[in-house]
Amino acid sequence: MASNNRGAESPILSWRNLNYDVKTKRHGVRRILHDISGDIYPGELVAIMGSSGAGKTTLLNVLAGRVQGGRLCGDIKFNGATRVPHTFKRMLAFVEQDDLMFSLLSVEETLLASAQLRLSNERYADSDKRSRVETVLRQLRLTHVKDTKIGGYGMRGVSGGERKRVSIGMELVTDPSILVLDEPSSGLDSSSAEMVVELTKEMARQRNLCTLMTIHQPSAEMVAKFDKLILLSQGKLVYMGPASQALSYFENQGYPSTNSNPANFFIDLMTVDFASDEAMRKSEQRVQALVDYFANYRKRCTIENDQNTHQHTQLSSHKSIASTLATSRIMPQQQSVALDYSPSKGSHGSMYDGCSEKRAAAADTNYAYITNDITNEVAGMTCYEAPPMNGWLGETRILLKRDWILSTRNMSLVYGIIGECVVNLLFLGFVFFQLGKDQPSVQNRIGALFSLTVQCTFPVIIPVMTVIMTSRDVLMRERSGGTYRMTSYFFAKSLSFFPLVIVPYVFMYTGAYLISHLQYDAAKFFIGLANLAAILFASLGFSFAMSMAVRSLEVAHIITPVSLGTLMLFAGNMANAKAITPVLRWLKYVCIYYYAYSGFVQNEFGGLEFTCSPEAAICYRTGEDVLNTYGLNELSIGQCILLNIVLGAVFYAMAYCLLRWKAKPRYLWL
Ligand SMILES: Nc1ncnc2c1ncn2[C@@H]1O[C@H](COP(=O)(O)OP(=O)(O)OP(=O)(O)O)[C@@H](O)[C@H]1O
Ligand SMILES: [Mg+2]
């Protein structure tokens, strides 16, 4: 990655001859982007427009390094050098069309977490990050809703426009070089949409940010705010150049504007009409003519530009060179200067000013009208180096805090686990009430301990898995932006669930222990608790592994009970642990039920003596007799606890590997 600042005249991002193909079942290989080239400069606000299916999102994703599948060729340079994925993704802020955020966090918490995780601790103190959040809240007009929850499905939160501004804010609290927005105005009313564009423009100016957005049907006022337009039709470039000159460009080709809104006029011009064969043929011809015209025009511009460069260099080597229409830089607040080249030299002669536009070196003074914190910090500077990543511990601490807030605010999870523990405590305690030392108590003890073991799995694994899977989109978004390390994510997430699960379960275990009158012995009580903690740890690990292994929540809700039900067969309760079919016997060693159940049973039966009535056909005299019969004394209690912890760790490791390699998006890079 280039680290040198090449000065304000260099494009921050340039792309040449981008072609993107996908394979479709019906049509074979289909080209989505055709030979797209262009550049963007710091401080520019660029809009990609075109009718639906024109390839806007695809182009945006290609430039952002977020396209998956298919075949991509061409060349993309960031600050004149090949992009390095790890650094580039941390210098790019991507506002996706779907606002993926945690519904349970407030607006301020959302922005603060983004700032704390993504701004470098070396450069910013915590107070700086907080004040930046305040500034962004103010700039995005979100101060009045800063304590409101984001909200989501089934939960009222901020409005759609506010939500969109929060997702923009999450990116703006960081220090990106490039801001990319996919349809930032979709679903918003016209004034909110205009506000979003206005704010984005303001930010682009203040921070010298290069901003690229796709937009549907902007109003005339919005079009006027853009510095540069990229017009696409069927994946081909129809125009790329100054927004202010787009209308005259088309007028010069014999297409005067027929609509008061230029955006509608452009879309009408570029859309293929499928109403009839004749209409389709005509519109396709028109679009192809526009595409060809632009390609030719660009070639002529390049030649002209080269000549200008030569003369200009001779005249004044220190001044900026003229650039092509496609690569022209629109300096903020700068009036374009009419130059000598116009393809037709007609009445609209000035429309191709951008073809060889002179850029005033004094353009920087145009930033002067903006005065606020961010401007003072970064205006005029463009950072080409990714900030250093924050330390593991600090990162994990911030994630832990966020995850803890999320877990404790998730009332269905909290009340679900507490409620389930209370119900189990009552049923376990009173079904197996005050167990004695007779023969039926042997069966009851076995039943109580097996039931306890099972209760430590299903009611933990399924809700936790659901919570992880429903927030996986946010994880993927944050991961794509290189927000934190995956190890920090795992550590923080698991740690945030553990107290939430262990506390109600200790309460349940203690209650059931006392009511059922298991062996009253302090050592046995605490050994039982350790065994309980080990299976809960393993259960949490299992839910993480399942969440990462299966993509769909519905499928996970089928696979999980089935696999747990199958594993239950090897616990040593339904099938004798020593007499399972030899070929399947090894499965008990990867069975969390086996270790937990064996631990509980040995702990309870060890040292117990039972009474035998004369009429009993089978009589267990001691707890050891029971253990021998069930084959549950192969491993010691300590080994059982340890092996469940090891199994839990293996599940976590599996989840980590799955996330790192299987769930990892395979982006195409140029
Ligand atoms: N991976 C893919 N496989 C098959 N077709 C694809 C793929 N990606 C994009 N396309 C097709 O490419 C075309 C352009 O898609 P894209 O999403 O870029 O359009 P768009 O201009 O953003 O449209 P909209 O305005 O509706 O969002 C569409 O016809 C789409 O179906
Ligand atoms: Mg799109």
TrEMBL record:
SUPFAM superfamilies per the record?
A: P-loop containing nucleoside triphosphate hydrolases
Q: Where is the signal peptide?
A: none
Official protein name in the record = ABC transporter domain-containing protein
Query: CDD domains recorded for this chain?
Result: ABCG_EPDR
Where does the chain cross the membrane?
412-434, 446-469, 490-516, 522-543, 555-575, 636-659
Annotated keywords: ATP-binding, Membrane, Nucleotide-binding, Transmembrane, Transmembrane helix, Transport
Per UniProt, what is one GO molecular function of this protein? ATP binding
Against PROSITE patterns, the record matches this protein to: ABC_TRANSPORTER_1, ABC_TRANSPORTER_2
Q: Which Pfam families match?
A: ABC2_membrane (PF01061), ABC2_membrane_7 (PF19055), ABC_tran (PF00005)
Q: Does the keyword Cell inner membrane apply?
A: no
- InterPro entries attached here? AAA+_ATPase, ABC2_TM, ABC_transporter-like_ATP-bd, ABC_transporter-like_CS, ABCG_dom, ABCG_transporters, P-loop_NTPase
Q: Where found in the cell? A: Membrane
A single cellular component GO annotation: membrane
Q: How does it sit in the membrane?
A: Multi-pass membrane protein
ABC transporter domain sequence ranges: 18-259
